[in-house]
Design a protein that fits this description.
46% of the residues lie in helices and 21% in strands. The chain is α+β, with helices and mostly antiparallel strands.
């Protein structure tokens, strides 16, 4: 071993030790500043986060202002998953986020590509309630703040600014790629042409000519790469730009040396690699251009939601109809909506009736008939009637704003599968740099002549092909697209963890009332005896029940209205506990109740009992009717099954899921409902009190099942929280159901099918992305390092390495965008 070999070996070992300290030695944390009741800190975003380690105190609002002093897609978003923060960072702007960290611990914040990272250390609050932060005085308020109150446009401003930033980046990258292509092609043609025996003009082969052509490519075209790459190293971290910068700088620097002072190099190692520098930089930027264009589509769902709300509203002010910006509407305003117009705000119909298309919010295609007293949702489309609406919610309190917020929160969260990518990426760049050092040393000591040239080319190839950009994109892009798709289908997924867990569910528990059924009783049967007329009977009993507040009475009254039956005057109304009611209607004595009531009044109920028993067997509540001392008939009232429940339950079974119904009803009624929707008696849990539903979930989990609970989000809250995934049936007016992981805006069980199928599709997509991200590195790094050279004489050119790296990132982006074309496989009418 020669002296130069020993020197390279010792130098490599020193570099490896320094590399370990540089990336993994402890870093000093920066404490935040206290201003009044708020903690504040400014973080500069330029090649990394400065500071990248922040200390704050639990229980005190924390304002972090990100001062982004760069452009490019790598740091255009910051995520703090533990606190559901997803913040777009427009280039060269200050952007703030405010949240209250309640729990002490160490949390990560990172860019949207998961390459630039920082650490947030939350310390416990002191016992006396004071904060462990310094307070040197007043801090200037940031120019751009994250609004906690405002309108839907406020929620979408960052998305629009991000879109503007992407468009600007696309224009800039296009210009750089064109210049890089024009300047690099002559050099590439000369080198490749000479290699295959084509006669090339000597001026193109001249090192000085190549130096003049490629230097602008290195310093102008490659500026977005180098500025971030070197700045990242200043922060003792590294990401995709760092590897490209190190590789191209090494190749360019060596080529400049061989051009300017060739005499310092041995004769056999005076080759230049200007063509590699030009092609690598141009290819990388071209791949990034395609990537930015493809990524622009992943925010489509939120932008589509933002476009739903009309810009103006027509309101009555001092009895005068005026058109004002929608953000100026206040609670209590009377809003006028004409046929075919979008409803601008959430409210209650005061006058008018119309069918309203709520598909953009609930995912349900059938219009819903709205009459006075009904609730309407902003951004839905009015049908053929005119409506006067009393505003109940505006701005960030509307359903649309809540949906946008939940989608943004879901996109800010991390799926458990991303922990693998995080673990790999945290060690990946330092490991690649170490492999690059070892590759150089191995080729220099063991390789053929010219040793230095082979060593340099191999090390540069390793650095370039190993760029982990695709690894950082693999999970976040799929999560962003799929949560947006879910929102468009009326399925709001609260977190990426819930989205991932849903694909592993094997058991689904369905609460009966309000989930399988509509949750309100309706009049289903009118059976008369002794020559009575059905409509006349309904008129009498509905008139009598109008005085009662019982839900069954309400069902009878509503049933009469639906049949167009007019009600009659009532006298002598009397409610008899445990029996029913007695009243005088149109001078006739009416009894409505159970068998005991009729028997006690001397009415033969034997014929009615047979009918009653049959209705009870069908899961209906039967009420016997006597008129003027004679049996008159039986009416049946039931909580009817939702139109899509039968098909949805069949679809769940087709997906291989065990489906269980849980209810507080008696076993006979429960079995009747189960038979109608296709649930076997073995999978029915009857007479279960609300407080015992969570215990039923626990029992199934103890058997090794992964359980989803579907309920109304109110009395089912403990069970929803206990389940591995909780699905809440939304009322359509309040989507922020805290106990649930997934909210079904339509109130239909088909949303469960949608969520599970979407989860499965997303997980397949993420695994495909991880494959694309790792296959190039897994196979490319060993080839680039030269492991195949001894046996096959195979080496990897830095140009091929650059193309493979760009293809890896592009493959991930395009594959994630395939989810935008996802549709529900199960057909549910």
């Amino acid at each position: 071993m020669s002296g130069s070999d020993i020197g390279v070996l010792i130098g490599s070992l020193v570099l490896l030790v320094g590399l370990g300290w540089f990336f993994f030695a402890p870093r000093r944390a920066t404490q935040v500043l206290s201003v009044g009741n708020e903690q504040t800190i400014d973080v500069i975003v330029k090649g990394g986060y400065s500071p990248d380690t922040i200390q704050a105190t639990a229980g005190v609002p924390l304002r972090i202002t990100f001062d982004r002093q760069e452009s490019g897609s790598c740091t255009d978003k910051v995520l703090i998953p533990a606190f559901r923060v997803a913040l777009d960072l427009p280039a060269n702007r200050r952007t703030s986020v405010v949240f209250t960290p309640e729990t002490a611990g160490t949390y990560e914040f990172a860019c949207g590509m998961n390459m630039v990272k920082g650490t947030l250390i939350i310390n416990p609050s002191s016992k006396d309630g004071s904060s462990n932060v310094i307070n040197p005085g007043k801090v200037q308020e940031p120019a751009n703040q994250n609004l906690e109150q405002g309108n839907v446009e406020d929620l979408g401003n960052s998305e629009e600014e991000a879109a503007v930033g992407r468009n600007s980046e696309i224009r800039d990258l296009t210009r750089r790629v064109l210049i890089g292509t024009i300047l690099t092609l002559p050099v590439l043609f000369a080198v490749m042409g000479r290699a295959i025996g084509i006669t090339i003009p000597s001026i193109l082969l001249n090192h000085w000519t190549q130096f003049v052509l490629i230097t602008p490519v290195m310093f102008y075209v490659g500026a977005p790469i180098h500025s971030i790459g070197w700045l990242t190293l200043r922060h003792r971290s590294a990401e995709m730009n760092t590897l490209i910068t190190l590789g191209t700088s090494a190749a360019y620097g060596y080529s400049v040396l061989a051009t300017l002072v060739p005499s310092v190099l041995p004769t056999n190692v005076r080759d230049v690699y200007f063509e590699a520098v030009g092609v690598i930089i141009t290819l990388i930027l071209f791949g990034r251009l395609l990537e930015v264009k493809a990524k622009a589509g992943t925010g489509e769902a939120i932008r589509a939601l933002l476009d739903l709300q009309p810009p103006t509203a027509r309101v009555l002010r001092n009895q005068v109809e005026v058109e004002i910006p929608v953000e100026e509407v206040v609670v209590g305003d009377e809003v006028i909506v004409r046929p075919g117009e979008k409803i601008p705000v959430d409210g209650i119909v005061e006058t008018g009736s119309s069918a309203v298309d709520e598909s953009m919010v609930t995912g349900e295609s059938m219009p819903i008939e709205k009459v006075p007293g009904d609730i309407v949702i902003g951004a839905t489309i009015n049908g053929t009637g005119s409506l006067h609406i009393r505003t109940t919610k505006v701005g960030v309190n509307t359903v649309l704003a809540q949906i946008i917020k939940l989608v943004q929160q879901a996109q800010a969260s991390k799926a458990p599968i991303q922990r693998l990518a995080d673990l790999i990426s945290s060690f990946f760049v330092p490991a690649v740099m170490a492999i690059g050092i070892l590759t150089f040393a191995s080729w220099f000591i063991l390789g053929p002549a010219p040793e230095f040239t082979y060593a340099l080319v191999a090390a540069v190839s390793v650095l370039i092909i190993a760029c982990p950009c695709a690894l950082g994109l693999a999970t976040p892009l799929s999560i962003m697209v799929s949560t947006g798709k879910g929102a468009q289908a009326g399925v709001l997924i609260r977190s990426a963890e819930a989205l991932e867990t849903a694909h592993k569910i094997d058991t689904v528990i369905l609460d009966k009332t309000g989930t399988i059924t509509a949750g309100r009783p309706v009049l289903t049967d009118v059976i008369v005896v002794n020559g009575n007329n059905a409509d006349s009977l309904v008129a009498l009993i509905a008139s009598a029940e109008r005085e009662s507040e019982h839900p069954l009475a309400t069902a009878i009254v509503e049933g009469a209205k639906e049949r167009g039956i007019s009600l009659l005057p009532v006298a002598n109304f009397n409610s008899i506990t445990g029996r029913g009611i007695r009243a005088s209607v149109d001078q006739r004595e009416i009894l409505i109740g159970n068998k005991l009531l009729l028997d006690e009044n001397g009415i033969d109920s034997s014929a009615l009992t047979v009918i009653s028993d049959r209705l009870s067997g069908e899961g209906k509540t039967a009420m016997l009717i006597g008129i003027d001392g004679v049996a008159a008939g039986v009416v049946g009232v039931a909580d009817v099954i939702r139109p899509t429940s039968i098909a949805a339950i069949a679809a769940l079974k087709k997906l291989g899921l065990r489906t269980i119904m849980i209810t507080g009803d008696n076993q006979r009624t429960a079995n009747a409902i189960g038979a109608q929707v296709g649930i076997s008696e073995n999978d029915i849990r009857a007479q279960v009190l609300p407080e015992n539903k969570a215990a039923a979930v626990v029992d199934l989990q103890k058997e090794g099942n992964l359980v989803a609970m579907v309920g109304d989000g109110i009395n089912d809250a403990p069970a929803l929280a206990q389940a591995n995934v909780g699905f809440a049936i939304s009322t359509g007016t309040d989507v922020a159901i805290e106990s649930a992981d997934i909210t079904l805006m339509s109130g239909s069980l088909k949303g469960v099918v949608t969520a599970i199928e979407l989860s499965r599709a997303t997980m397949r997509n993420i695994k495909q992305n991880l494959f694309f991200a790792l296959i190039y590195n897994g196979s490319g790094i060993p080839i680039a390092a030269g492991l195949l050279y001894p046996a096959f004489g195979l080496r990897l050119s830095p140009i091929i390495a650059a193309a493979a790296m760009a293809l890896s990132s592009l493959s991930v982006v395009l594959n994630a965008n395939r989810l935008r074309r996802w549709h529900l496989a199960s057909h549910i009418d």
